[in-house]
Amino acid sequence: ILRERWHFLGHPIFRLADRNFNVWWTDFNRSFSRTIYGLSFTHFNMRGRNEKLHINGHLGFNRKLELSYTIPGFGKKRNFGAFVNASWQSNREVFTSAENHKQIFHRLPEYAINFIQTDLFLTYRAAHISEFGAGISYNDNQVTDTIVKLNDNFLETGKNRQRFLSASLYYRNDKRDRKIYATEGSMWEVRLKQSGLGLMSETFMTELFGVYSQFLNLGSGFYISTQLRTKFSLPREQPYLNQSSLGFLKDLVRGYEFYVIDGRHHGVFKFNFKKNIFNYNLNDGWIPGLDKLQRLPVNVYLKAFFDAGYVYDDYFYTGDFLINKPLWSAGLGLDIVTAYDFVWRVEYAVNHLGENGLYLHFLTDL
Questions:
Q1: Cα separation of 102 and 322, whole Å?
Q2: Which of 122, 183, 235, 293 is the most core-located residue (most Cβ within 10 A)?
Q3: φ/ψ bin of 256: left (φ > 0), alpha (ψ from -120 to 50), beta (otherwise)
Q4: pTM, two decimal places
Q5: pLDDT at 118
Q6: Among residues 147, 101, 105, which one has the least CA distance to residue 18?
Q7: Highest mean pLDDT (candidates 39-48, 175-184, 280-289)
Q8: Minimum mean pLDDT range among 9-13, 20-24, 183-187
């Protein structure tokens, strides 16, 4: 039986402002002042053409309004796509630097930083598995004089406003059996981003990102997944706000959840060996009247993993103990995967420093 997903999805927003659950739980003592709450609305089938309208607004640790519209296919062969986004965000508490790989936050009586961003992306699917994309973005970032005093290079040197245009290009080749928590196939992507086009500001950064993932089904419920992620950037001197670090989302070596590792270049390799130990569907009638949720799949995977990484830097580096050194970790974990691509990960990891811990995540590792 073919079961259709809901076309409308409205729900409250409640999430943590910190990089991951573990940082919030341990470093910030489970403080609810570091949470975000609001409302989100998504229409997945605007105009009956699978176009998506997304609106959300939230308060709490920061304030944000966002509106986006996605057109997955237009043109004679419907192999062109488009994405438009506009957002505004304001923060009262800001991290201005990192010491010993820990973010240094400052909470001010006024909202200390404001971001405005607009994006326009166009995509072209040359085949079912391959996609080209090109986009342009506008950023307007403003901070108070207090932030400039705390970090003179937070935006451009000595300035409290930064405006620039960015241009991006990417190519993706995707042979995965599904986008979220794939078990077979491969995916690789290359993305080039130029921030600052010689207009409006001094910002001029070039970044090259790459990712390659491989997923193998060994049979009898056993799986292997691997991924390599890389980033290279120029020039040597970069505004602190714009440089990306190791320690956020999937740019993470497991077992180093409590660290932010600033650097111009980095690479991360991840390896998982998994066994599906639980596979069950909650069937008809489990919630009366909600026919869209009559089937709720639940899959649980037991895994062993190994990660390795390296961060190179010759600008922010001040002798910190994780920069320009090999990083590695190993451990065991459980992945819980259910409907609407929800993923929970519980992992025990040991890193090269001999530190060990139990970590909880709410997104896929690859």
A1: 11
A2: 183
A3: alpha
A4: 0.89
A5: 97
A6: 105
A7: 175-184
A8: 9-13
> What CA dihedral angle connects 60, 62, 67 and 71, to 10 degrees?
-100
Give the closest residue to 270 by CA, choosing from 257, 251, 248.
251
Q: Which one, of 240, 160, 159, 156, lies nearest residue 196 by Cα?
A: 156
Cβ contacts of 14 within 8 Å, gap of 6 or more = 35, 36, 37
Exposure of 280 by Cβ count < 10 A (0-12 exposed, 13-18 middle, 19+ buried)? Answer: exposed
3-state secondary structure the chain: CCCCCCCEEEEEEEEECCCCHHHHHHCCCCCHHHEEEEEEEEEEEECCCCEEEEEEEEEECEEEEEEEEEEEEECCCCCEEEEEEEEEEEECEEEEEEECCEEEEEECCCCCEEEEEEEEEEEEEEECCEEEEEEEEEEEEEECHHHHHHCCCCCCCCCCEEEEEEEEEEEEEECCCCCCCCCCEEEEEEEEEEECCCCCCCCCEEEEEEEEEEEEEEECCEEEEEEEEEEEEECCCCCCCCCCCECECCECCCCCCCCCECCCEEEEEEEEEEEEEEEEEECCCCCCCCHHHCCEEEEEEEEEEEEEEEEECCCCCCCCCCCCCCEEEEEEEEEEEEHHHCEEEEEEEEECCCCEEEEEECCCCC
Length of the chain in terms of residues written: 366
CA distance 183 to 221: 10
Mean local confidence (pLDDT), 255-259? 95
> What gap in Å lies between CA 104 and CA 182, rounded to an integer?
36
Q: Which two tokens mark 180? A: 């979220």
pLDDT, tens only, 308-333: 999 998 876 666 789 999 999 999 99
**Whole-number pLDDT of residue 319:** 63
